[in-house]
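Sanity check

After download, print the first record. It should look like this:
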Amino acid sequence: MTTNTEPKLKEELEKGLSKTSNDAPAKGPKITISIGKDIEFISETKPDKKPSEGQTIVAYTAKEKGDPFSITLNDLMATLDTSIADLLPSGLKDKSIKFKNLMVIYRKEQKTSKGEWLFVLDLDIATKIQLKSLPVVGGLISDEVGKEELVPSLRLVVASKAFSIKEIRVLNDKIPNKPDKKEEKLIPPMPVPKEKGTDESEAKLSVRKGFSFSGQLGLPDAAKILSLSISPEQAEEEKEVLAPGGEKETVTNSNLAVWFDIDKTFGPFSLKQIGFQYEEKANNPEIGIVIDAALKIAGLTLACDDLGVGIALENLNPSFKISGIGIEYKNSIIEISGALLRKQDTEYEEYLGLASLKFDLAGKSFGVSAIGAYAYYDGKPSLFLYAVLNLTIVVDPSFIITGFALGFGYNRYLKVPSIDKLLKFPLVAEAVEPTDSKFSDDNELITKKLSQMDKYMPISIGSGFVAIGLKFTCFKMLDCFALLTVAIGEDFEINLLGIAKMKIPTPAKDSKNTSCIANMTMLLRARFSLSEGVISIEGQLASDCYLLSPDCRLTGGFALCLWVSGPHASDFVITLGGYHPLFKKPAHYPTVPRLGFQWKVGDCLSLKGEMYFALCSHAIMAGGRLEANFKLGTLWANFVAEAHFLISWKPYYYEILVQIRIQAGFGILGPVTLGVQLHLWGPEFAGTATFWIIFVKVTMEFGDQSSRLPEPIDWESFQSSFLPPAKSTAQGSSTAADVCSVVVNQGVTKQLSPATTKEVAFVVNPKELELVVNSAIPSKQALYDKKSLGIGEAKTNFGIRSMGVTKEQLDTSYNIKIKRQEKVGSGSVTVDKDEFQFIPITQDVPTALWGDAKVKLTKVKGKDSERILLPEANDQQFVENVLSGFRIVPRIQEDDCSTNIIDVEKLQQDTTRISDVYAWQQMTAFSGVSAENEARTTAIKNNIVSANTQNNRKNLLQSLGFNPDNDVQLTESVANSFVIAPQVKA
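Expected structure tokens:
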């Protein structure tokens, strides 16, 4: 009987069941399926002891010798159940895999029930997998253990449903025995615990629905049943399940892996864990058996991470591998330790390592630690190396150098983290807190540390960095580390990083008493980024800072940032302790913690205080808060005092809000509340005071309540405060504000000195010439010689906020005129606009200066007065995309000469021979004046001043744009300049 790739295998199995005898096993029909090649199954029917319990048919190939089956799983599964292929991982769907034996166990509880089945496919592994074949440690393992097969057999199991241990025992019992060995199964059964357990344990999951790999660990005294589900849906099920051997297993979804604790020792070789994993590598799926092991010999410890074998399913050839290795040696004089990690990416392999060396020499201790990485990516090497040398150099008793750091990266980009993560940055952590040498005791920690290096120093072809650091101590109280880094490639970035630690009093070196009244760690970072156009300096206290008591924790930070280019050009911020509580921090502003403390004084009292100050382009913010909480049994009380300031300038104005609240209670009595709020504004001092006494509210006013809004400033104040200063003339008087500038941005070949010109002058290359004109005052329109210029997409929605000038009232224009002097001493003429291109330059300007004014007419002391409405804390900080100037470049002139169109027919004719095209003429040979030098000199003197020569020379110079009368003066004395006069025509 032959079937195609439709699910007719199931039909044949059903037919075989229908012919099953109710009382004894029987040979079933031979079943042949065709999936590129014919595969023949032998079948046997196995009824249960009680016919009512169910019937089973087993079909198998039992092909122990000969060529294996090379089968595509998609096609094979389609002969049994088309829906099960949905649970096949994408990397296996069209992959042809070699199998030694195939077996399907098909079972029905009743004739009318739905069948359930288990398909077992034994992989044809090309080579035995033995411990002695493992890299690094294989040769050091004894023959008794090394010759043992790590995994004697591997199989792919496909299940129509999830089977319990009890159900697998039933199916195993149906597998036929070998004819010559009645106690041995013809096909190896599915692994289950040898001894039957309780009903509860027998009901535990053994095989999941879908596809899974199964095998058995063959180490002596460490037999483990390995099972790993690889179906996409099943891999996301419960994290912890009972394995087929009855052990707990942990599934990690990153690589689909199952790990088992072994903790066995074979002589010097100790085995900690073994893992069974599946990976899809660039459409080349692989089964891996990995172990974490260590080897200890005479004080030397060798630790291995993810040591094992990978079996590519494409050809089933094992390849031995190792992901990480650590080494440690220690005696009374020297300590050596190191670790190396291999990371496999889809496109490349990377090796990351760290090492440390400590030794005593002549009574002094020295130490070196280093981290590094290497990869070969996209045909180019990529690496970095960073080393720290620990040694003591006494420069002065108050300044002692304790170490140096040096590093570089090639085809690596350096990502310096934010200041709050500075202590975790590898280049800082390696110097401040060097890696512990006990690699064998903390394998996972070292592996994690190595893996994080790529986060900060990723591969980036064309990039690089250098790092130089210095460790030192001041007055034996302040331990410091400074690191300068320069990164190029994706961006040009300079960072200066600093760590300063201090304890008061400083604990003695060998003292067990480490208590102190103050512990401080200050983090510093200065940064310049070319792409972001930012210059910044930040400082922050680390989380371990305290004063007086470890329960009194200190916080705080500061930042100064200036943006000189890019989308945030002209923006700035200075902050100490953060921002106003209602201020919505822009994304590019740094996050700064409050200057403050939190102190738990015993079990009853806690204190908390914080302060802040910030200055940005449109406001100043300052404030603070003090809080105290007391609780003793049912008696409680708290006190809160806070103040917040919002200050603007030009016009100067301030607003202050101060609140104090006291609450107390005892049991069910309370809370009793007393509070006061003080609201002040100025510069004309005024405000309100509000009191709360339980349920009574009283408000008092003082000062001129109508003066709450500031007056606009005049033009003179605005000009002197916000525009560039005026230029002084030679006579001592001053001109108007110098708001416009002209810069030759490109094309300068020479700058003429002031001695040769009255004004600064340049010699420029017209092809590369670029002028940049800018104005400190944004413009709403642009003119060239009073003719309109396009301003592109520049916005015009701005006014002068501090003067109370709205966007409708303000009219600004930018007038450009370019003049050319035709002749020396003559007047200049205006160049035609069409000779240049004018490209608008836009930028963002502070709203505090150029924002649309919001003006309100109010009465102050009985008189009408225009006042400016105050900006809100979260008002837009910048007027975006306003016109500030132009880039001016010569317009590319179109070539007036062009080739006429030629009819194609004229180019399709044959070649025509034309005779006598060239007419040869007889020419007179050159004849010199004389062979004597004196005669030639005389001839030159006479010729250079002849009327004919002078006339020809004048015509030539004029055609080149020169003035012959002023620019070129030639006399007969030129002939005397020759040492040997040249030969001239007679």
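If your output differs, re-run the checksum step. Summary of this record's structure: Residues 327-483 form one domain.
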